[in-house]
Design brief:
By secondary structure, the protein is mostly helical. 69% of the residues lie in helices and 2% in strands. The protein has one domain. α3 packs across α7.
Length: 163
């Protein structure tokens, strides 16, 4: 039954210390299930965003900047040869890296819902905006120290100028 899926999805959501690949796959599968459970989209988005906020709160801007600064200082010690072999875009703050990957999945989802054949689907974007706005009001606004997750709503708003 549809009413059992949301509590089950929330209960079995991987804890934030789990491997990033497990979390990405879990969120992608939840979002994929919305193609045939669109009536549950708002609730699924609440579940996902609440989990992202938990990670976001543990990835304060100061901690991220500090971790990146230490990484840059450490890299200066190594030779250029060693730098070239380890050239990746991963953040050095574990929670920040996870948050980046998970938010990218949501940005992809928002894009896929909002754009069809290179054209903005205003009706779908409007419905998605309403769902995200409800999540924003219910979960994001009361949260202290969230710095990154709110960019999901900003991203959806960016499609309005295209319409």
């Amino acid at each position: 039954s549809v009413t059992l899926l949301c509590p089950t999805a929330e209960q079995h959501f991987p804890f934030m210390t789990k491997d990033i690949n497990i979390q990405v796959i879990y969120i992608k599968n939840l979002l994929r299930s919305l193609s045939y459970l669109s009536i549950q989209r708002s609730r699924y988005l609440e579940i996902i965003v609440s989990k992202l906020i938990r990670i976001d709160v543990h990835a304060s801007r100061q901690d991220i900047l500090h971790a990146e600064k230490i990484n840059i200082e450490n890299e200066l010690v190594f030779s250029l040869e060693q730098l070239n072999t380890n050239d990746n875009n991963e953040m050095k703050h574990d929670h920040a890296d996870k948050l980046d990957c998970l938010m990218f999945v949501l940005f992809e989802y928002i894009t896929n819902v909002s754009i069809e054949n290179g054209v903005v689907n205003y009706q779908e974007t409007k419905l998605l905006f309403k769902d995200l706005l409800n999540v924003f009001n219910k979960i994001l606004l009361p949260t202290h120290d969230s710095s990154h997750v709110q960019f999901l709503i900003f991203y959806v708003c960016s499609f309005h100028t295209v319409c």
